Amino acid sequence: MQLSPRDGRNLTFVQLVKAMVLVYNISYPLAFAVTLGGFVTSGKLSYHDAAKPMYRQKSSLVALEQASWKARCIALIEPMRTLVTYVHLSWTLDLSSLSKRGPYRIAHDGAMVHLSGISSTAPDKDLIKKLLDHASNVRDAAGKLKGGLGLADIAHYHAQRQNSLTSPNNDIQEQVALGECGLLWSVLRGREHAACQGPGVCENDAVVPTSRLEQWLGEERLPDGWWGEDGVRPRTTIGLFQSRQTADKVGVLGKTIA
Q: pTM of this prediction?
């Protein structure tokens, strides 16, 4: 079953929701909320003629006056029926449109791997290298290399990117950025930590391996070994409220940066 066009163009609302649920194992309410944000800010509304209506002879005023009240009502609603029958409205989304900038867009400055101030559909090589170098050198409390980024590390890196901006993002875009950070960690973290919920040592120790960051953000593809019972794909469904709590946690942890 094909869930969405491979070129990322003219996606319908339902297609995008189903694709996110299937690929990332997020709940339908979370997928609905994420999709709604994208469609409201970047969707396109269009219409097309389903078929050409057959020619209908217009009734004269005299004929209408002589017609019964039922025939008059039918004559009045006929234009509306024709519009509904032959004109189809569609609300679709091109994934590339999500990169457009503006105060009411979800694309924001200070992103992990995209340049600030310009519309960018491809990750920046220098920012990818910076992120991967950072991930490769993060150490735990015992001084041992983590081999990736924990939730606190992601929060601190996000805060560094935000602090480098000359003009901060608006409140909506900052919430979008926090949500992105939280979902990145929730979706890509190590399987052994998938059952950890809420704040705590286990949550902060859950690490997104550097290789997954490179494949998902840098190469823009699913990490190796994604599917299957022992795959990378989250085993436990990621819910809307859990995602909101994780995003809030990213905001709190980011404030502890020196």
A: 0.77
Q: ∠ CA(113), CA(151), CA(257), 5° rounding?
A: 80
Measured CA distances, 143 to 137, 138, 146 (Å): 10, 9, 9
Spatial contact of 25 and 235, defined as CB atoms under 8 Å apart: yes
Written as six digits, the tokens of 78 are 């006929």
Which of the two residues, 8 and 185, has the higher pLDDT score?
Answer: 185
CA dist., res. 216 & res. 196, Å (int): 22
Pairwise CA distance, residues 148 & 211, whole Å: 8
Q: Say how many C-beta atoms besides its own lie within 10 A of residue 105's C-beta.
A: 18
Alpha-carbon gap, residue 149 to 161, rounded angstroms: 15
Residue-wise pLDDT for 135-175, tens only, equals 888 887 777 888 899 999 999 999 999 988 888 888 999 99
Contact 188, 208 (CB under 8 A): yes
149 C-beta neighbours (distance < 10 Å), count: 29
DSSP for 13-41, written as a single string: HHHHHHHHHHHH-B-HHHHHHHHHHHHHH
Per-residue pLDDT tens digits for 31-77: 999 999 999 988 888 776 655 554 444 444 445 455 565 665 666 66
* Digit-coded pLDDT (tens) for 70-87: 665 666 666 666 655 656
